[in-house]
Amino acid sequence: MADNPTPQEQSTTEPAQTQAASRQPADSPPARWGELLQWLIEYRAFILLGLALTYAVLFVPFFATERNITQMTTQFSIDGIISIGLTILMIAWGIDLGVGATLALAGIVFALSQDLGVPAAALLGILAGAGVGIVNGFVVTRMKVNFFIATLSTMVAVKGLTFIISDETTIYGHAEGFGWMGSAKLGLFEFPALAFFGIGIIAHLIMTQTSLGTYWYAIGGNADASHRAGLNVKRLFALSFVVAGLCSGIAGVLLASRAVSANPGVGRDTALFAISATVIGGTSLFGGVGNVLGAVAGVMFLGVVRNSLNLLGVSAYWQWVIQGVILVSVVVSDVYMNRRRRTA
Amino acid sequence: MESNTIVEMKGISKRFGSVQALNQVDLELREGEILGLVGDNAAGKSTLMKILSGAHVADSGQILINGEEVSIRDPRDARSCGIEMIYQDLALCNNLDVARNIFLGREYTRGLPFLSILDKKKMYAESAALLKRLNINISSPRLKVERMSGGQRQMVAAAKAIAFDAKILLMDEPTAALGVREANTLLRLIKDLRDGGHSVVLITQRVPDILAIGDRVMVLKGGRRQGILNVSEVGLDDVVELIVRGRAGAESEEDALEYLSFG
Prior knowledge:
The complex is a heterodimer.
Chain A: H1 7-13, H2 15-27, H3 29-42, H4 44-59, H5 66-91, H6 99-112, H7 118-141, H8 147-166, E1 171-172, H9 180-183, E2 185-186, E3 189-190, H10 191-209, H11 211-221, H12 223-228, H13 233-259, E4 261-262, H14 270-280, H15 292-311, H16 316-343
Antiparallel strand pairs in A: 1-4, 2-3
Chain B: E1 5-16, E2 19-30, E3 34-39, H1 45-52, E4 60-65, E5 68-70, H2 75-80, E6 83-86, H3 98-102, E7 109-110, E8 117-118, H4 120-133, H5 150-163, E9 168-172, H6 180-195, E10 199-203, H7 207-213, E11 216-221, E12 224-230, H8 236-244, H9 249-262
Parallel strand pairs in B: 3-10, 3-11, 6-9, 9-10
Antiparallel strand pairs in B: 1-2, 1-4, 4-5, 7-8, 11-12
Helix pairs in contact in B: 5-6, 8-9
């Protein structure tokens, strides 16, 4: 026994050094710089939003007018509500490519059932969106289909269904109060913008203050560990698809109410805008990382850019190019950050 | 020192396809001891512990906790017996902070039953107290695990296990990926846990670790128990000899060298 170079001796003789060594990764100067970089990337949406707003207010004619602010906020808010749902879904490490189709279905269901009264019809439209989410959740977690394929398939099916039940035509709102949700105004903001900010705050509180939010982060970060900790990973994952569907449903109803009509063909660019805003907002494509307030800022940033380009008379095609470039650069930074995280 | 046997595994056998991973293995873990479990690769160490923690189910054999036979079919059964396994590939969520990891699935909450609000203050306070009690050097329970070293992560995993009254800790190669200092800090924590009344089974390739902090050491080879030794009565050579016993002389000498060089 005596001739063994036992670790016990070392462990009892150098506690101070051991402490210093184990503290080093969190507080050393290089880590501080890494922390700053990480902080900048995490809150990039707020920085981008600040820059875009400054530019737009100073250099874009008619940007800072009451009418433009009202219109712009309503525009980005409808897609923005979807971004909030996608943020939660993507934190749980899923994605839904069919949010645009769900948006269209919800609008059509809302318009078709308007004779039941607007509140009931709105509820049905929203439930239709949630229903699509339930189907997605079921297909992904029970039938174990990859979520890209699953949501792409549901998207096609939902699109077909939307055209069938609408008879391929626009359905106009005739019930009393059909357009109220889309146009009611409080100060500068119309109802969709208020709904967007309200849902954003609620979602933020759920993700940061409740056990449910923690679970969504947990399953997106390490599904295995979450399972070992006793979480019902499948049910939580399925529920995140329902949240995305629910938000798409709300957005669809608001859009139809605003247009006082429901068109089965809307929502083609919705997924691109919503996913871009979410990723700009700091949500990772690789799960477990993201925050709702960032997504709200990401939505506002893209909204300001889109609105400014319109006011400056930039053609729609160039706008697509610009939006594509923004998305690619954000995705590249996400891939870079993810690699850093995995090797850290 | 005589003390009660807290875990008894009797005649445990397990077969994976054509491989007999465990063959009639017995194990006794006493209350408040560190039992080392050593042996070559594929000796059956991890399989035996996975059976005790409910990750595998034995083909035959009995498990007794405090003298009473129990049925452990999944990790939840094991947990209700006070058994917690700390895995080599850590069961932590790197994107969550220390407190959220410790309390994952068992959060303190208040308010609405359908949407329970986290009692973060209580979780952070208790986590900080736990880290302090275990002498774990992590400056704040608000730190995310992804920002920590391998040793710190192991210690968070251990804290997570004992936060909820696990009396029996199973650790699979906890020091394997650590540097010397971090490994020593972790070994000291394991010793503190033992002194605090926990019983620990420590699977390891590093025999000197066991000799430093363990009470007894059990040797497995080819799915069979080779023997169990009191640490206070043996040295490194005795253990290594038992690990490699039964092989051709020349080969075993080489193997023995390899083991000795771990120290």
